[in-house]
Amino acid sequence: MKAQDYRTFNLRFQVAKCPPWMQYHQLNLIEPISFGSWLTLHNRVFISALTRNCSVPTNVPNDLNVEYSRQHPRSAKLIVSEEAALTLRMDSLGRTTRPHAPGI
């Protein structure tokens, strides 16, 4: 079995195990996808915003956050952003519950 055939078989097998309401035609991550008439993406690669440890040591967005945001949209066309109202709570020792997260 060729590598391409194996990938197709594997995806079909995984889809076959899904409940009927989740089943989808053969998945292809590099195919474009449209969400109505208002959004068309060039591929189906999505990433989340992973900037939690980029704001060292002050918890203030800095150049590393900018560089991260500049690099990653090239690989994925949609970035699922985290909540903008990120709150930093302090424990009894004065430590934050989310260390090095940008305090937006």
From TrEMBL:
<protein>
    <submittedName>
        <fullName>Uncharacterized protein</fullName>
    </submittedName>
</protein>
<dbReference type="InterPro" id="IPR013785">
    <property type="entry name" value="Aldolase_TIM"/>
</dbReference>
